Amino acid sequence: MSSSKDSDRLLPVKNRLEPFWLCERDPVLQNARTTTELPRAVDVVIVGSGLTGAMTAYHLYAEAEKIGRRINVVMLEADEVCSGATARNGGHCKPIPFVGYRTEASKHGQTIANQLLTFEASALKQYADLVAKEDINCDMHVTRAFDIFFREDDAASGKKDYEARKSAFPNDVNGQDIRVVNDPKELERLTGIKGGCFGANYPAGHLWPYKLATSLIHIAIGRGLNLQTHTPVISVKESNSQPGQWEVNTPRGSITAGQVIVASNAYTSGFLPDFKDLIFPVRGTACSITPAQSHSYGASPGPIKYTYGFRHGPGEVDYMIPRQGRGRIPGVGDKSYILGGAKGCFLNDLSQWYDNKQDDQYMPGAKEYFGGFMKKHFADWNGNEKGNVDKVWSGILGYSADLLPYVGEIPDKPGVFVCAGFTGHGMPRIPGCSAAISSLVASRINDGFITANAQKAFQDALPQPYWLTRERYTSKVNLIKAAMGQGDKTKGALENSDEAVLAGRAVRAKL
Ligand SMILES: Cc1cc2nc3c(=O)[nH]c(=O)nc-3n(C[C@H](O)[C@H](O)[C@H](O)COP(=O)(O)OP(=O)(O)OC[C@H]3O[C@@H](n4cnc5c(N)ncnc54)[C@H](O)[C@@H]3O)c2cc1C
């Protein structure tokens, strides 16, 4: 029987808006339950079947193979498979190449600030290698991203970030092939976009995130994964009867596990209350757009080739990918663009986005904003009166209080691991974070504790600001609102500091 407390619980809501990416659901996995009943005891429970849960399961089986162990893993999913942010995002794997560098350097030093950026850049190759190795059909496409700055003050700040990183780490900046464009005319000529005052381009990619995640889950099932959809976790407690084990509770029964990996992103505090001040559900929106005749092959200006970040101001970033068709053969199938953002429409009404889980509802003004977007920004666009917009949807992002993901074992909860809080910017972070957490968990399974070597490998693999330290775990600082330009003016403290405002320029806001 469910109580009123249960109905208030932070879980995915029913009847959510339909995103483009769910137009080709996986009929085998959608509502799958590998076994009719839940297993009673396993080595690992993974909570969540989005990209983080899927990649973690994939890496975990690879780790188990390395150490020659059979492992029992169950993946619990509250709703249908992979129906959260991964099925509602922009499909954009866009490492941030320099924006925010000085802010991070002032907090963590230049080496770590640079590491945060090189970590993201390495994700593109990880995706390409994985897709090639496993022959995954997810429309993976490697191209270049163009960041366009529309405001002079934002552009000036971006240029300073670029210069600062370049002078400290010229090899990394050159190695990442980051090129800046200072001349607005040249910028428009290269991009077809009107009104930008500064731009930068660098390698990036796009793919169909749902197809990647479900393909990885299929592979993991082939190696023994038990997937249980429509099975929300409601609590994780220390087992009374079996010391050192965790009891993962769901409305369908409990599972005892030595290890739990929390990959539930925005919804984490729904069953781990300590995360209530750490990860917040933040509502965002995106849409799909059919290319106009003017931007199709054989026309002028012709097809859009880059992916884009449209930087309108702190925290206010639109992003777009031009899909190249479906399957393993680029050019076949629909080539819709995915465009997200529209933050200017609702950012100043906190209730519309902050601590909001209603992705069953449209964001106010988003449809109209997206409808006018292409004509406003792309020279010679000749789409229809609705701006060629097809589907508009909402999605729930997991924003972390300090704007960086939490990755690691929870202090005082040995065996419970978290990989969440991607703050609207999971694609360039999830491959590295999920691999690092999997190797930590494998060490614990193999040795009964996390060995010093495994701990060191984890720390070497991940930028230190991502580690789930006790300090971060107990921190009460929340930079989210200020980073989005909506700080509480009645609070004089850190929440409104330059640091938070600068972080807003850096924040990988994908609302
Ligand atoms: C509109 C929008 C646009 C975005 N655009 C981009 C982009 O272009 N590039 C980018 O890098 N990032 C983007 N993001 C962010 C990106 O989608 C996320 O960072 C990423 O998908 C997170 O993956 P995840 O697996 O951690 O979370 P999710 O995909 O949200 O998966 C978490 C899963 O956990 C399940 N779950 C929750 N609670 C429970 C529970 N109690 N029990 C069991 N299961 C539970 C959920 O149902 C869900 O399936 C965007 C997000 C949105 C919403």
Automatic annotation (TrEMBL):
This is FAD dependent oxidoreductase superfamily protein. Residues 43-438 form the FAD dependent oxidoreductase domain. SUPFAM superfamilies: FAD/NAD(P)-binding domain. One of its GO terms (cellular component) is cytoplasm. InterPro entries: FAD-dep_OxRdtase, FAD/NAD-bd_sf.
